[in-house]
UniProtKB/TrEMBL annotation:
<dbReference type="InterPro" id="IPR018770">
    <property type="entry name" value="ChloroindolylP_hydrolase"/>
</dbReference>
<feature type="transmembrane region" description="Helical">
    <location>
        <begin position="12"/>
        <end position="33"/>
    </location>
</feature>
<keyword id="KW-0472">Membrane</keyword>
<keyword id="KW-1133">Transmembrane helix</keyword>
<protein>
    <submittedName>
        <fullName>Protein xpaC</fullName>
    </submittedName>
</protein>
<feature type="transmembrane region" description="Helical">
    <location>
        <begin position="39"/>
        <end position="60"/>
    </location>
</feature>
<keyword id="KW-0812">Transmembrane</keyword>
<dbReference type="Pfam" id="PF10112">
    <property type="entry name" value="Halogen_Hydrol"/>
</dbReference>
Length: 209
């Protein structure tokens, strides 16, 4: 959920409430300045919290999620971001140009999936394999590849392992792209439907001429 929207709504609601409470306490009720200010702050905080709670509740209703589901998804997205940071750090250790480009592409897909799940948490369930398996594998393989590739001497076993890791990361990149497409599947279906409906309307109009 966009925290900026929640915060902005809370501020817009709380400021008028604070002003009204302070004016009421200071003038009609003749309360001291500090007491009026304290009551106004408390009223503003209550208004802010209420407004934020209402916005959050509407967001959950629109997303079709319970509070516990939302917290669970947020926890997984937060962990995914931490893994994404590990993936970014591993990039600086990779000297292979081809693998570096491949890992950058992988990181771009990971970032897009995390942003989608954060903005629209209901999409999380369409890419559970990404959060539970694929991302973990990508991070572990990339970090291990970076470590082994930095060794001053490499025997045939290390070279073979690096080549195998390269192939596996290519497959994981493709798999994560499929995860992303799965998250977008409803949008793709909606677009196809709209295209079909629009073409049908155009054809009908042509037939009438």
């Amino acid at each position: 959920m966009n925290r900026f929207i929640t915060h902005t709504t809370g501020v817009f609601v709380s400021l008028p409430v604070m002003s009204a409470v302070w004016l009421t306490a200071f003038f009609p009720m003749s309360m001291p300045y500090l007491s009026s200010s304290g009551i106004a702050l408390a009223g503003g905080a209550a208004a802010y919290g209420t407004a934020a709670a209402v916005v959050h509740a509407r967001f959950l209703k629109k997303s079709g999620l319970t509070r516990s589901e939302y917290r669970y998804i947020q926890k997984n997205v937060k962990e995914a971001k931490q893994k994404m940071n590990r993936l970014s750090r591993a990039l600086f250790s990779i000297r292979s140009v081809s693998l570096l480009k491949q890992t950058v592409d992988l990181l771009r897909v990971v970032r897009r999936i995390c942003k989608l799940a954060e903005k629209e948490p209901q999409r999380f369930y369409k890419a559970e394999s990404f959060f539970y398996n694929h991302l973990d594998s990508a991070v572990e393989i990339t970090e291990r590849y970076a470590f082994l590739s930095l060794q001053p001497k490499k025997n045939s076993e290390i070279q073979s392992s690096l080549k195998e890791a390269n192939r596996t990361l290519k497959e994981l990149t493709f798999t994560m792209e499929e995860d992303l497409f799965q998250m977008l599947s409803d949008d793709i279906s909606s677009l196809k439907f709209e295209n079909t409906a629009a073409k049908h309307a155009i054809d009908q109009k042509k037939d009438l001429k």
